[in-house]
């Protein structure tokens, strides 16, 4: 038999982008399969209403996307459905790839020639122009899980501007990776794109409701020296002023767009959020949650003499740079329902999730350690943890680590149920911040050592995430 059973997370990585969320109300998936050569996938389903079984076989179309090629429903038992699916997958696997093509209709109504499949990692720019992290992704076997996972995802990601690959390989690698992360997490949460992806980047709908999201990143200063890493003496000023100023200028560009995102097609009555990642300096994303919380809400919490202090912030100032604090209080700020961040939205997360989905060199080893909330007993204080990512039983989701800062003055509030699994932060009139934590709270901080089995520990690449 040339077919083997796979875990749902591998199926989701390969074909989850083709799911119709509406079907979730009707059918429940319960087993997933792949041919040994990876050319055909299969899934068994159970009908919630008719209480019978069905199967679906999927093959790669002209764009190398998995799409349904065969289906059968109204079967009496799971065993019958399984036998029929495996036989169908054998048949489809034995045929040529062209049998799975379904006719490319492009962007119009008339059939047209499909675009040529693209090798996203084949260099299209001189090596000296390639982003250093792109080079790592392409050449380092330790990051082969991320490379193979991204290759699978990119088959389904729409290149609206026509320059995604060029930017992904060069100066905009970080921004394009952040977009891919958002694409993955929104797919995981059951959203499908209903807009054209021009502006905002994501206009989506799920069974829980609609949402519009614009992706953006804080980047290194153009044509200027990157500020030196903060010392112990300058760290507080750096976190309380420089980082919020960088985030403020990134967000304000989106707020002041000539054609507002919240007025775009498909956005009427839909909450609008800006999703931000900080790449202004190496490791900057590890500081984004406290810095963005203080800037967006315009409030700072601290402990002095054992008592909580709440301070409303007027401005962030560093040298000649100054920005008003409180993004949600700015003119037009009421049109932004929330700001979304995730310090884990980095390459090493792709590597971890790629590995547990069966991608990449199986000799890759990853050890993730850090500090997380502990709710197991009467002492809930943060505790250190060490996880073997490559060990059986390790689990992680795309949404883990996401923090949603809700605008208390939002014209259209964002329902937290739209983004289950995220941490939701709400500002109260007295300056207190109420947190809605997921059932499995994410680490406060973690770092991952990535290496190849048998290599010396000193050869591990360690990334904060």
Detailed description of the structure:
It comes from Brevundimonas alba. Residues 95-114 are annotated as: Disordered. This is Glycosaminoglycan attachment protein. α4 crosses α9 (347-356). An eight-stranded mixed beta sheet has the order 6-7-8-9-14-17-18-19, with helices on both faces. With 465 residues, it is α+β, with helices and mostly antiparallel strands. It is globular, with a radius of gyration of 23 Å. The longest helix is centred in the middle third of the chain and has 21 residues, at 235-255. The chain has nine helices and 21 strands. 23% of the residues lie in helices and 28% in strands. The chain has helices at residues 8-15, 78-94, 132-139, 144-154, 164-169, 173-188, 235-255, 288-297, 347-356; strands at residues 3-6, 27-35, 40-47, 53-60, 66-75, 192-193, 202-206, 209-218, 272-278, 299-304, 307-312, 315-318, 321-324, 338-341, 364-372, 383-388, 403-406, 423-427, 433-436, 443-452, 461-464.
Outline the biggest β-sheet: 8 strands, mixed
Number of strands: 21
Radius of gyration, CA atoms, in whole angstroms: 23 Å
Residue stretches low in confidence (pLDDT < 50, at least 5 long) are 106-110
* Percentage of β-strand residues: 25-35%
End-to-end C-alpha gap: 41 Å
Number of domains: 2
Order of helices and strands: EHEEEEHHHHHEEEHEHEEEEEHEEEEEEE
Task: List the defining traits of the structure above.
single chain; 465 residues; alpha+beta; 2 domains; 8-stranded mixed sheet; 21 strands; 23% helix
Short synopsis of the structure:
This is Glycosaminoglycan attachment protein. The chain is an alpha+beta fold and 465 residues long. 23% of the residues lie in helices and 28% in strands.
């Amino acid at each position: 038999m040339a077919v083997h059973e796979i875990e749902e997370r591998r199926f989701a990585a390969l074909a989850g982008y083709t799911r119709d969320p509406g079907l979730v109300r009707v059918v429940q998936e319960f087993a997933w399969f792949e041919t040994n050569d990876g050319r055909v996938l299969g899934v068994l389903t159970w009908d919630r209403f008719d209480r019978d079984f069905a199967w679906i076989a999927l093959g790669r179309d002209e764009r190398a996307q998995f799409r349904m090629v065969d289906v059968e429903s109204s079967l009496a038992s799971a065993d019958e459905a399984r036998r029929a699916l495996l036989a169908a997958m054998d048949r489809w696997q034995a045929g040529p790839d062209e049998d799975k093509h379904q006719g490319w209709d492009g962007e119009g109504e008339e059939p047209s020639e499909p675009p040529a499949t693209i090798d996203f990692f084949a260099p299209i720019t001189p090596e000296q122009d390639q982003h250093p992290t792109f080079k790592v992704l392409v050449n380092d076997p330790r990051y082969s899980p991320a490379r193979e996972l991204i290759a699978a995802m990119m088959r389904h990601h729409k290149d609206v501007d026509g320059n995604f690959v060029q930017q992904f390989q060069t100066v905009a690698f970080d921004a394009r990776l952040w977009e891919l992360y958002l694409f993955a997490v929104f797919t995981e949460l059951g959203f499908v794109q209903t807009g054209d992806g021009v502006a905002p980047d994501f206009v989506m709908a799920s069974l829980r409701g609609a949402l519009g999201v614009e992706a953006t990143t804080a980047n290194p200063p153009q044509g200027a020296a990157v500020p030196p890493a903060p010392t112990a003496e300058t760290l507080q000023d750096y976190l309380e002023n420089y980082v919020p100023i960088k985030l403020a200028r990134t967000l304000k560009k989106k707020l002041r767009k000539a054609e507002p995102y919240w007025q775009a097609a498909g956005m009427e009555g839909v909450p609008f959020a800006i999703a931000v990642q900080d790449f202004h300096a190496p490791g900057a994303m590890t500081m984004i949650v406290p810095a963005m919380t203080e800037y967006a809400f315009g409030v700072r919490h601290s402990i002095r003499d054992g008592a909580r202090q709440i301070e409303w912030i007027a401005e962030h100032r560093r040298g000649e740079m100054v920005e008003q604090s409180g993004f949600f209080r700015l003119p037009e700020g009421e049109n932004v329902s929330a700001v979304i961040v995730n310090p884990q939205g980095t390459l090493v997360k792709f590597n971890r999730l790629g590995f547990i989905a069966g991608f990449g060199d199986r000799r890759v080893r990853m050890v993730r350690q850090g500090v997380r909330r502990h709710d197991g007993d009467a002492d809930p204080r943060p505790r250190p943890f060490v996880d073997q990512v490559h060990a059986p039983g390790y689990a992680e989701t795309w949404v883990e680590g996401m923090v949603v800062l809700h605008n208390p003055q939002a014209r259209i509030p964002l329902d937290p149920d739209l983004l289950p699994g995220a941490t939701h932060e709400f500002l109260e009139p007295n300056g207190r911040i109420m947190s809605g934590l997921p059932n499995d709270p994410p680490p406060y901080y973690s770092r991952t050592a990535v290496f190849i089995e048998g290599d010396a520990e000193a050869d591990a690449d360690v990334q904060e995430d």
